[in-house]
Write a structure and sequence with these properties.
Distance between the termini: 34 Å
InterPro entries: DUF6984
Largest sheet: 7 strands, antiparallel
Helix content: 25-40%
Strand order of the largest sheet: 1-2-3-6-5-4-7
Radius of gyration: 14 Å
Strand content: 25-35%
Protein name: DUF6984 domain-containing protein
Number of helices: 3
Shape: globular
Length: about 120
């Protein structure tokens, strides 16, 4: 990661919002590594991804990282009835990498997913 790229990411970074924390906690709670992941949730910084307003965020780090495994996949419906797909991804070290949200019609998210309305996919 270049110094310029890191600087840009730092300028755009913010703590997780409460709704993002609630969703992450609900989706990751059943994982064996939840204790480690929950520490990351409480201390991390993120930045909004350029996704057309669908709500995806990437976790900030100073190290170069690569996308690793998908920790959990889920789905729900947005306030307008359009399906929303959610993937919580880790990097190759097993640390939180991104919350990837996308609507089936690629329109902006109307309401952030509420944990009680989200269905975890067990493919």
């Amino acid at each position: 990661m270049s110094v310029e790229s890191l600087h840009q990411d730092l300028e755009k970074s913010r703590p997780l919002r409460d709704d993002e924390k609630f969703l992450l906690t609900a989706l990751l709670a059943s994982r064996a590594d939840f204790t480690v992941l929950s520490r990351q949730i409480s201390t991390c910084s993120v930045y909004d991804m350029s996704d057309g307003g669908m709500g995806s965020v990437k976790f900030l780090t100073v190290d170069e990282r690569l996308l690793g495994d998908t920790l959990v996949e889920a789905e729900c419906e947005d306030a307008d009835g359009v399906p929303v797909f959610i993937a919580i991804n880790a990097d190759t070290r097993g640390e939180l990498y991104e919350i990837d949200l996308w609507k089936a019609d690629f329109s902006p998210l109307k309401q952030y997913p509420k944990p009680e309305l989200v269905r975890i996919r067990n493919d």
